[in-house]
Design a protein that fits this description.
Elements (H helix, E strand, L loop, with lengths): L1 H9 L8 H18 L8 H32 L12 E11 L6 E9 L8 E5 L11 E9 L12 H7 L2 E7 L4 E3 L7 H23 L3 H11 L7 H9 L10 H21 L1 H6 L2 H19 L4 H18 L7 H14 L7 H22 L11 H35 L1 E3 L2 H26 L6 H22 L5 E3 L5 H16 L8 H14 L5 E3 L6 E5 L2 E5 L7 H9 L4 H6 L10 E4 L4 E4 L4 H4 L5 E4 L11 E3 L1 H7 L2 E6 L2 E6 L11 H9 L1
Parallel strand pairs: 3-5, 13-14, 14-15
Antiparallel strand pairs: 1-2, 1-4, 2-3, 4-5, 4-6, 7-8, 9-10, 9-16, 10-11, 12-13, 16-17
């Protein structure tokens, strides 16, 4: 089903509306037919063939069902494409959220009106110099430049336009000056009104947490409880990310697991102490129900983001298994959780969060099942209290170390593929912070929630903030080291898929068959190591151009512009931030033109692209240019806007260029589709 949703979303054009439903129905019909033909005699050839055939048809049905889910989800969020304009427009709407970024606050608005636009998108996001008093729930008026969400920067890069489409974010841009608060009537729908009220409540709660415990710890506490990261400074965010602790800032599986597990354990322990209750009532089911209710409240308070919803569904499956007297930790439960998530949010299968979350969970479930089937050692005499404490401590530390190692090993391929980075100190950093999060932060947060109605929440909040400040210090210690992050080139798609297949095979099979995944993983590594690397890379705005010549990498990146393109392209090429800071431009470079003799390439910022073609084989231009002589490949402003950035590979004496958005791709979220549809 995951593969079906991914194939539908990655198709160059929308498949025919009947294709996925027909695929699903054919699979169901085939599986039913095979089941009817099955024989009851064990080992019978007919029985073997029918079961294998039924399994194959069932997988075909699941593949088609994933496509159906993606098709319905795409249609449900459709809205008119936004046409970019160089003229400033006045935007009015209700503030939904303040999305923090490295370059300042970004207001997400529920749109009421846009000057000159009749069919407005549901949401827009505008970068502002200062959000001021514009908190969620308030009306705002901004004036600035808007455009459709940008597609991938280069082939294989993250496609923000696709994510924005499913979030119904129709336009992004920047505001001139400050956005002004205004009085607006209530939002058109009752559901929007409740979302705005909830957003205002979350903002007030985050402000109260930060006011009670100002500083790094309070900012992280506000982010953990409410999902509001606006108060987390850039240095703290970078340190946590570089140390492998960045997942602590987003409400995801780890937080749902800690909160749910803590509530379940506390309720189970408390109820078990009361003999009349423990003997007469199913205390496990009562504790599971209480944990689900608390997690539902946490989901609402934290903003109900897609990662949080995904984690909540997984928790519901686990605690639901307890209510049904089934094992809470199993591959079947994980498969059911994945089925529900893909059915509701099929676009999430292409998101790194979904892939890394399920990969880590699958690996840990496989580890749990393997340890459960392992032969048990004979019971030893009861040790003394000191020896027993030391043994329990060593087992706990060893368990945490093993869990961190397995989860990290399962998620590292996805981190390298999507982010082209590897945190060297992720394992020790997570090992040290795990007890702090489990035994200090989570209980303090629970105590604060219980005592808040009585006005006694400040002491546990201070404990929580102090513990999180310690976590931030650990992140700064590990993440601040120059060797903390290793940049690795992006793996080829085939190598990545083989790696995922090897991981899945090793986790799902039992016994000796599990080790068949090892040679598959070795082949993936070999493909990665021997893959051809680009000799040049550029983004759609020519904010950064990398070229690998005889002396190594050189770079053309105009000063005074955002370094985002430089950092992301550099990461895709395997260049770490310290290396990027040392890369110089080519010798023949000025404000308007840079040229490289090997490979023969020129970047022209302004007029003169036609003349540059006389001396260079590939010319990149920020301005529209007229057709030139056949020996020159000219990529002008129109081509950059239509096809995005690209990677240049050397094929001996010739070269080939891969673009981020080839001409054949036309989906609802691609720039070509937007331009084409607006012209029609």
């Amino acid at each position: 089903m995951i593969a079906g949703a991914a194939l539908w979303l990655l198709a160059p054009t929308d498949p025919a509306w009947w294709f996925s439903p027909a695929f699903t129905l054919a699979g169901i019909a085939g599986a039913t037919w095979m089941a009817l033909l099955s024989s009851d005699r064990p080992g019978d050839l007919k029985m073997i063939v029918s079961r294998v055939g039924a399994a194959a048809f069932a997988m075909t049905a699941a593949l088609g069902l994933g496509g159906v889910a993606a098709q319905l989800r795409t249609a449900s969020v459709a809205q008119a494409p936004f046409v970019a304009s160089d003229e400033p427009r006045r935007v009015e709407g209700w503030v939904v959220a303040n999305d923090a970024s490295d370059n300042g606050p970004r207001l997400r608005l529920l749109v009421r009106s846009i000057e000159g636009i009749d069919d407005v998108p549901r949401y827009v996001r505008m970068s502002v110099a200062d959000a001021g008093v514009l908190t969620p729930g308030r009306g705002a008026r901004c004036r600035g430049i808007l455009g459709p969400p940008s597609g991938p920067m280069a082939p294989g890069a993250y496609d923000f336009a696709r994510r924005a489409y499913f979030e119904r974010l129709g336009a992004t841009g920047f505001a001139f000056g400050r956005c002004r608060p205004i009085e607006l009537p209530a939002a058109p729908s009752w559901l929007d009104q409740q979302r705005l009220r909830l957003g205002a409540m979350r903002s007030d709660l985050a402000a109260a947490i930060y006011e009670a415990s100002p500083g790094r710890g309070g900012a992280i506490a506000a982010a953990l409880v409410t999902g509001d990261r606006s108060t987390v400074d850039k240095a703290t965010n970078d340190a946590l990310r570089d140390s492998g602790l960045g997942h602590l800032l987003s409400v995801s599986g780890i937080h749902m697991g800690v909160v749910g597990g803590l509530v379940y354990a506390m309720l189970l322990w408390s109820l078990s102490l009361v003999s009349p209750i423990a003997l007469r009532f199913p205390v496990k089911k009562i504790a599971a129900t209480g944990a689900l209710l608390v997690l539902a409240a946490y989901l609402i308070v934290s903003g109900s983001s897609v990662p949080a919803l995904r984690s909540f569904i997984m928790a519901c499956v686990a605690f639901g298994a307890i209510l049904l007297d089934r094992p809470a930790i199993s591959m079947r439960g994980l498969a059911l959780a994945a089925f529900i998530v893909v059915l509701i949010f099929p676009e999430s299968v292409l998101e790194p969060g979904f892939q890394m979350s399920f990969a880590a969970t699958m690996a840990l479930v496989a580890l749990f099942e393997m340890m459960k089937r392992a032969p048990h050692e004979p019971a030893l005499p009861t040790p003394g209290p000191i020896i027993g404490l030391l043994q329990a401590t060593s087992r706990g530390i060893g368990g945490v170390l093993l869990i961190s190692f397995v989860a990290g090993l399962a998620t590292d391929p996805f981190a390298i593929y999507h982010f082209q980075r590897f945190s060297l100190y992720s394992l020790p950093a997570n090992l040290i912070t795990a007890p702090i999060m489990s035994f200090l932060v989570a209980p303090a947060a629970a105590a604060a929630a219980i005592l808040a109605p009585f006005g006694w929440a400040d002491p546990p909040l201070e404990i929580m903030a102090s513990a999180l400040d310690l976590v931030a210090a650990i992140g700064a210690t590990f993440g601040g080291r120059p060797e903390a992050v290793r940049a690795l080139p992006r793996p080829p798609d085939l190598a990545f898929m083989l790696c995922v297949f090897a991981l899945t095979w090793a986790c799902l099979w039992r016994g000796g068959l599990r080790w068949v995944g090892a040679p598959i993983f070795a082949v993936a590594i070999a493909l990665y190591v021997t893959a051809a690397q680009p000799i040049a890379a550029f983004d759609s705005d020519l904010r950064a151009v990398f070229v690998h010549g005889e002396t190594g990498w050189t770079m053309d990146a105009p000063a005074g512009r955002s370094t985002y393109a430089r950092d992301r392209l550099g990461a895709m090429l395997g260049l770490s931030p310290p290396v990027l800071e040392r890369i110089a431009p080519p010798e023949t470079c000025n404000e308007t033109r840079c040229t490289w003799p090997t490979p023969s390439l020129a970047v022209v910022r302004g007029e003169g692209a036609e003349a540059a073609c006389a001396a260079s084989v590939v010319v990149l231009s920020t301005s529209p240019a007229a057709p030139v002589q056949p020996r020159c490949t000219l990529i002008d402003a129109n081509s950059l806007a239509r096809n995005g950035g690209g990677l240049i590979y050397s094929d001996g004496e010739s070269f080939r260029i891969e673009r981020a958005q080839p001409d054949g791709i036309r989906r609802a979220w691609t720039p070509q589709a937007t331009v084409h549809d607006s012209q029609e």
